[in-house]
Write a structure and sequence with these properties.
heterodimer, A: 145 residues, six-stranded mixed β-sheet, 9 strands, B: 238 residues, alpha+beta, 5 helices, 36% strand
């Protein structure tokens, strides 16, 4: 007996993975489902990673209503102006686009970065000058040594 | 520059058009009150432990060794010392800090102004622009859940360092938030924060230490177009 697998695939135009804020993200969605669904949703969202609890937010949502069981459709969605993607020492923020049927039964996710000049924003670790109480405690430490 | 006629309230109303007076993250009074409450709590608990231990010792019962009390006693003494430090800091010079735009975009030129009242005691003034990432996470210890926050400083740029009396008293400096950096971000658990840090060195007294948060904005549509044009021109020229 042949078991048909549900399938949704997102293609971003030219395989792009870096965008500018406000730029239009273009692509195509292909699907092949075993049963009819009410709609297929495309979400553009950001999420954080790192030592902190995760924050996330859906920025843009588009729906393909009453799709056929098998089909393809191109899409064009304008990205928001912020927040930018960044990679820090303890946190990072990434953008992603996902296409999903109801209840996340079938989905495809593509990650991308969004920065003004399309260059990765990396936040380093820098030493700051000790001030106030920190300075006082450091001077105590130095006196001891 | 007339040093005698300007008073704090005059300055508040006379700051140049387009300048905003920055608000301190925590005033000296707030810092003092927080430290006082912490010291009172810690001292109360420690006193209770010490009294109980002494009474037990008098009765000849040794519930726990005295050496275990050294840690809370030292902690309480340290906090009392900090209360004294912040109390003296209450009488430090007062200051007003202004900025040409409290919500700048990366790369935008800004003018920072300051005025320190009773600046005679300040030997050296340093001003920094600080950017930090901040993450809050859950902790679980002995079946108790808590929340902890960690920080990483990713930018600490010196905007000014002066020992000149006149410049310490009143002045202005120009700077820009570095281009190509991250704007302020206020997630529930993850944040990017920017602030101006002002440090005044005072001999034999607590230094002035003030932090003034600013909001670095992402580029608006117009600025993005400008940036895109400049990178395209740069690419063509280069």
């Amino acid at each position: 007996m042949e078991v048909k697998m549900d399938n949704i695939t997102l293609f971003l135009k030219d395989g792009k993975i870096t965008y500018r804020p406000g730029e239009t993200i273009r692509g195509e969605l292909l699907w092949d489902l075993s049963q009819e669904v009410q709609d297929i949703t495309i979400n553009i969202f950001w999420y954080t990673n790192g030592i902190g609890e995760q924050d996330s937010e859906i920025a843009v949502t588009e729906k393909i209503s009453m799709p056929l069981q098998k089909g393809r459709q191109s899409f064009e969605i304008e990205l928001p102006l912020a927040p930018y993607s960044y990679t820090g020492q303890i946190t990072e923020l990434q953008w992603a686009i996902e296409a999903t049927t109801m209840k996340d039964k079938v989905k495809d996710v593509k990650e991308f970065s969004m920065t003004p000049d399309k260059r990765e924003i990396v936040l380093p670790k820098v030493e700051e000058k000790a001030t106030g109480v920190q300075k006082f405690l450091q001077s105590l430490g130095k006196k001891r040594t | 520059m007339d040093k005698t006629t300007l008073h704090l309230n005059d300055y508040k109303t006379s700051s140049s058009a387009g300048e905003t007076i920055l608000k301190m993250k925590a005033s000296p009074l707030e810092k003092f009150v927080i430290m006082l409450v912490a010291a009172l709590l810690a001292s109360g608990i420690t006193s209770f432990l010490v009294i109980n231990a002494v009474e037990s010792w008098r009765k000849g019962n040794f519930e726990w060794p005295f050496c275990f009390l050294i840690i809370p006693v030292l902690l309480s003494l340290g906090l009392i010392g900090m209360v004294a430090y912040y109390f003296i800091a209450l009488f430090n010079s007062r200051l007003v800090v202004t900025i040409s735009n409290p919500r700048p975009q990366p790369g935008e030129k800004l003018t920072l102004g300051w005025k320190i009242f009773n600046a005679a005691s300040v030997d050296k003034l340093e001003i920094y622009l600080k950017g930090k990432e901040n993450a809050t996470f859950r902790t679980k210890q002995d079946h108790k859940e808590g929340r902890e926050t960690r920080e990483n400083t990713f930018a600490f740029l010196k905007l000014l360092e002066t020992e000149s009396r006149d410049a310490i008293y009143i002045g202005r400096t120009q700077f820009a938030v570095p281009p190509g950096t991250m704007h302020s971000f206020d997630g529930k658990n993850n944040k990017i924060q920017w602030e101006i840090v002002l440090h005044g060195n005072i001999k034999r007294r607590p230094d002035i230490n003030c932090e003034y948060p600013i909001t670095v904005m992402p580029f608006d549509q117009e600025s993005l177009h400008k940036l895109l044009r400049s990178t395209e021109n740069g690419g063509e020229n280069g």
